[in-house]
Structure formats: structure tokens, C-alpha cells
Amino acid sequence: MFSKVARRTFSSSVPSAYKVAVLGANGGIGQPLSLLLKLNTKVTDLALYDLRGAPGVAADCSHIPTNSTVKGYSPENDGLASALKNADVVVIPAGVPRKPGMTRDDLFNTNASIVRDLAKAVAANAPSAKVCIISNPVNSTVPIVAEILKSAGVYDPKKLFGVTTLDILRASRFISEIAGTNPAHEVVNVVGGHSGVTIVPLLSQTQHNLAIKGETRDALIHRIQFGGDEVVQAKDGAGSATLSMAQAGARFAGAILNGLAGEKDVIEASFVDSPLFKSEGVEFFSSNVTLGPEGVAKIHALGELSNAEEALVKVAKETLVDNIAKGVNFVKQNP
């Protein structure tokens, strides 16, 4: 028995090793996200950057006994460039949180400038990294990053991702509450964007297609689309979804790392430069994406939709055109 255990323990296979940089690591999302990434065995070099406090977060995380180094960086001494150097994956949760009554678009003016400047640093110091955008409003911040990378001549549509995973997590949780099932076993395809009516859960493709209907179905869709409001209200204006968003960000970053490592059938939804509705002027759209060593390996079609879902997708596309244009125009006016 001992020899079998020994053979497994001292296998000659070499685990995947990657550097991940978190920009905005001292924030409400950044801290738990950093913790979760420290627990990912594929992350061997974790670089944490923020305007203040990142060295403290790094020191705290560094005591967790996983096989990775953690270092915190601040703006002093060209810290942002150092944090990004040789990064395989960059995750950006930096920005201000929502407050009661605010939509993700209300955050635009502040967060757009933050994301623009971080994107410039990525272009200069980690042009080949996979870049995962959490900063809201994702429907507009992803196009901002794309425009900055284009202007620097380093844009690769396969390597830029808007993280919409929280919508998937909420859909799985909320549908399980109605159906009385284990949410870990609920698979719900959510497409479109990452704000309000652009979030389209494809309930017709779940095992509950016929069981959840009428007003219950409508209420479920609305809750998935505006689930973030529950958290903002429950926190009495002191913040928005941070812990659940950190879990979503860690799950998506983990999928990116699995794809980098060459694992098969790594599929997650993401807001990416997509051909699905480009002919209709929708440059970016979230759908299931197969991830590989180069980033996006395949963008999946939406599949069969109900008439109601077709109508929801139509509204989402119309809204996304404006959201995307807002990001593009911001860079034109504020290069």
C-alpha cells in the first residue's frame, strides 16, 4: 500500500505554473479574489497591485501554505509595471462599487478612466497576457480595453474577456431555490452582457423548461438580471456584490488557467469580441466559449431559443450596441 501512495505522491509529472496579476487587489472584490487565487494550485506567482494596501494583502495571503509566492505592489517604484511583468493572466477588479439606486452604467465615468489607465499598463508590460475584466460596467469597460490595446498594436481578441460568471452563479442558485435542487448541479446558460436587461438566462435549455413558467419564470429572469440590487440594498449602501463576485472571478480565472494548461473541454461564458451578432453592430457578446492555450478557442452559438428568449436577446443586443459605443467613444474623447 505504501509503495502505491509513494508512486502517486512522487509522480514525475510537472504541474502547470503561471503568474497571475490582480489589479485592484485591496478592494472589496480584490481581497477575497486574491485569497481564492492563492488556493489555485496552477498559480505559482501571484502579483497583487493597488494604489494602497496591496503589500498588506500580499503578506496576509503569503501565510497560506500553497506552493506559490505572493508579492504586493504599489504605484511607487514603477510597481504596476513590475506586477504585470511576465504575467500570464491579468484580472482587473479595480474600480468603485455601486451604491443604492445606481446601475452599472452610473459607474462609468469613474471606472472608465481607471480601466483605461490599467489597460495602457497591460499593453506596455504584459501584451500577451489573457486579460479578465471585472470592473463595471463590463459592457463598456471591455471595449475600452480593446481600444487601448488596438492603439498600442497588441490587441488579440482571443485574449480579452469580460467576466460574466456571476450571472451564471446567480442563475444556478436562484433556479435551485425554486426547484428545490442542489445549485451545484444546475447548469444555466446565460448570454448577452453583464448589466440588467442585457443578461439573458436561457431557461428553456435547462431541465426545468416546462416546470418553471408564467409569473414564476418572469420573476426568476428579473431576479437573475437584477440580482446585484439585492446585495446593494442589503448592505445599506456600504457596498455591492464582492464575495460572490470574487468567487465568480476566481472560477473564471481558473478556467483560463485550465485552458492555458491544455486541458480539454474547458467552457465558460464570457463577454468577448464575438462574430455571433457582429453583422448587427454588436461587436461584443457573452456566450459559452471554449478556452485553450491561446485564449478563446471557440465561440459557441446560443442554441435553440424560445420565442420569449428571442425577444430578450433582441432587447439585449439593442442595449449592448449603445453600451459598447459608450466605451469606444470614451477612448476617442479621452485617449
Automatic annotation (TrEMBL):
The keyword ATP-binding does not apply. NAD(+) binds at G24, A25, N26, G27, G28, I29, G30, D50, N111, I134, S135, N136, M245. It catalyses: (S)-malate + NAD(+) = oxaloacetate + NADH + H(+). One of its GO terms (cellular component) is mitochondrion. The active site is at H194. Its EC number is 1.1.1.37. Homodimer. This is Malate dehydrogenase. It comes from Babjeviella inositovora NRRL Y-12698.
